[in-house]
Design goal:
Chains A, B: Belongs to the LDH2/MDH2 oxidoreductase family. Chains A, B: This is Ldh family oxidoreductase. The structure is a homodimer. With about 350 residues, chain A is α+β, with helices and mostly antiparallel strands. Chain A has helices at about 10-20, 25-40, 55-60, 90-110, 125-135, 185-195, 215-220, 230-240, 250-255, 285-300, 310-320, 330-340, 345-360; strands at about 5, 70-75, 80-90, 110-120, 135-140, 165, 175-180, 205, 220-225, 265-275, 325.
Amino acid sequence: MSETVTLSVDEVHALAKAALLQQGFADNHATAIANTVTMAERDECRHHGLFRMPFYMNGLWSGQASPSIEPVLTRLAPSVIRVDAGYSFSPLALEAGDAPLAELAQEHGIAALSVVNALNVAALWPEVERLAQRGLVGFAFVAAAPYVAPAGGTRPLYGTNPMAFSWPRDGLPPVVFDQASSASARGEIQIRLRDGKTLPDGWAIGPDGQPTNDPKEALAGAQLPFGGFKGSNIAMMVELLAGPLLGDVLSFEAGARDTANTGAPCGGELVIAMDPAKFLPGGDRKAQLAHAEMLFERITGQTGARLPADRRYEARARSAEFGVKVPKVLHETILSYAAGQAIKERQAYEGDHLTHQNQAR
Amino acid sequence: MSETVTLSVDEVHALAKAALLQQGFADNHATAIANTVTMAERDECRHHGLFRMPFYMNGLWSGQASPSIEPVLTRLAPSVIRVDAGYSFSPLALEAGDAPLAELAQEHGIAALSVVNALNVAALWPEVERLAQRGLVGFAFVAAAPYVAPAGGTRPLYGTNPMAFSWPRDGLPPVVFDQASSASARGEIQIRLRDGKTLPDGWAIGPDGQPTNDPKEALAGAQLPFGGFKGSNIAMMVELLAGPLLGDVLSFEAGARDTANTGAPCGGELVIAMDPAKFLPGGDRKAQLAHAEMLFERITGQTGARLPADRRYEARARSAEFGVKVPKVLHETILSYAAGQAIKERQAYEGDHLTHQNQAR
């Protein structure tokens, strides 16, 4: 029903980048964030696309996100590298860690990248898809703010804590999944709130600990893990891998630190890369990938079953041909950022933030 | 209702080992298998305990499992080692890889162990618990035989494909989970079949692709992944990590190879270890573990929520004090193995196997 504007993928990138630059992001950060937003919009992952632009701005306006700091890469151990994002948004730090991680995995067989002090409101599939495009197997784990109750509990503790995985293919886009350990992504609830829709059963409990279908109650209460205690265990694992393992925060700490309520939690992300050829004496990657195809054929050969990223790749092809549809209201908001007309909104935000800061003291 | 025999934990080990030795396993294999079976029985993981003894015997009698081959360890890359089990059962190969993997992780920060050509009917938590007892974070992944349909599909393709994870604690037993990517472990269905019980909804479909509560129909049809498509993605990931990555088989290949229908699939297992101290500049493991305790406190502080391995640790304490209860029928079967009285059963098995071998030619 709501009006939309159709943009080409390049126009999405140009618009996002212009808005980020105009509001004060440095060129390299603006490019990396625009890359991330555009990839999501292109693949019809709406809640990580242009929908996230206000979150990037909130991070900037509140002073919680540095608009310009350079990521700092260090080697912590022979197979472990670390990129300190210095309290900036994660896309540039992840891009900075990508090639060094891949090289280390190709040399050692397995390697890990710790990204710390990074504000993250993006999907994880871009970083593991990049690794798979280099012929590597990838994992990524990131925590968030306390949104999800542990199985059996009633109070939010875990982030939506996604994990992503990628497997390379020969001449085909990689098999990739990126899934929240909550029953739904938080963005899906936020979009339903915006659109006045109710939630499916099993997504959330209200502040009273009882099941709810109301997005507002859900956001005030707690989301639920997917798949009961098993999904809850995955959420706990992600929390440990993205927090204490990296010397970064747990979701509840990230939430407490976001005093300006930007919705852009700051924390760690663990990325692991493995080189299949280093797991086989003789290292015949081609045979390994051909072997995996025997599995993929038997998945897609079953009516109703599909490979996890295929929906995104279909959207990607569609977007390249027909462009993407952006809600008019959102488009206008981003245009106003790009035109530098958001001063009022920005000042209000900063005022609010100062209030929070004073309270914290 | 069924009669039970109470054994001490040491008696379980002695009985299992005597049975394995009497039937022809070499001392080191018999010890490693008895260790695994005893740990499971002690922790009240019944379907990986003495219940599995006939599976070990089937593997031996059918000629599919070597009773005596020594595991061969090689270094494939600076951070990757491989143990070839040579078509023997996995416990000895996993024990052989444990210390070398831990040392490599302590040196490089992260390291991987590939165990190949191993028959596996055991749980995964022993190998990750061992790593955590050394202060490391552990992952393990293993496939099986084709039991589980991909989400949306109707035919078995994936194994029950468990993944395990461990996190070390200071002065406390580690936090460990080991969970099938199917809604239930296959052993849980087998035990319900044995006990004449029905299955909960959501565990399985029959050979007709329709939901079933009948354990027999479920074993002939397909189990279902936990948590819908997300659990299905985990199953696919495990399949790729334990098979093509290691140059070992996919579950459907392991199933086809088990011509004697032993129920003891042969394949690969991936174990990953990380040293937390190598992920933090300065390497303050104590601080990292103390940080993780802040999460654990907030899990156990919620009524109804608990840490994943606590049930096992409670059982462990109970078993140390009161011993374990073993069904009398199972106890007698194992006694007959130990007394060398299972010749008839063994010969029948071998006859059956020869028929299969002839068919295969």
